[in-house]
Amino acid sequence: MGTSVGGVRLSRRRLLGFGAVAVATGAAMVATSNSVSADTYGSGQLDPWEGLNTSISSDDQIRRVLAADGVFLFGDSIMVQDGNHLARRVLTLTHKPMAMHNWAGQPTEAAVDALERWKTKYGLPSRIVMAVGSNDIFKPPAFGPQVDRAMRIIGPAREVFWVNTYVCRTRESDLVQRADRRNTNWVNRQLDDAERRYPNLHVVRWAEFIATVKSTRHYVRDGVHTTVPLGQRFRDELITDALTSSRQVTGS
């Protein structure tokens, strides 16, 4: 099965055929090639992110979204940039509001921590978008267990839309870029494995889309973050297409 965006048909095989090209959008990636020698996976170290930019809905907004059975979004720096644009598009196409918890630089573990806090405090709506994983290229084995943890928290009665990753930081050396691509593939393979195990998990295939374009720089400005408006528009279109084409479920 494939997906069509802007007239381009995407498939999982297309991505796997590109091998090292498979990668995904990111968060505040501040590791440099200078740290590679001390790093196990070759992409460097994820620097402290807790003081970086955020885009987090207010308590009142979260409660309004939940009352309307809207959409919760958990993202990294790409969604700090793109979240409001996505929320407007979701509202226009689905008539559902969105609440968001986006934090630049956060790895998936931190996003799942936020998901767990929101479930405890507010409950969860029928549909949740997870747009994290880019910062897990620095430690790929940590990603898969966090996907499983998120799915346990969310449960089988809600739908999860998880955007896969594209990371190939253009300011880094060829050595680091190769590591970024390898580690992105590692992260995305774990997400594919999870999709096969969880019927309510849907992978939004941003990496496959990037693998089809002639010049990635028109869609990702630094090998991680979307260009505005073009990359932002196509990535958000992939997400909203997934949301509008899936079945509606009722949260438990």
UniProtKB/TrEMBL annotation:
Source organism superkingdom: Bacteria
Keywords per UniProt: Signal
Name under which the protein is recorded: SGNH hydrolase-type esterase domain-containing protein
Signal peptide stretch: 1-38
Oxidoreductase among keywords: no
SUPFAM superfamilies: SGNH hydrolase
PROSITE patterns reported in the protein's UniProt record: TAT
Keyword match Nucleus: no
Species assigned in the record: Kribbella koreensis
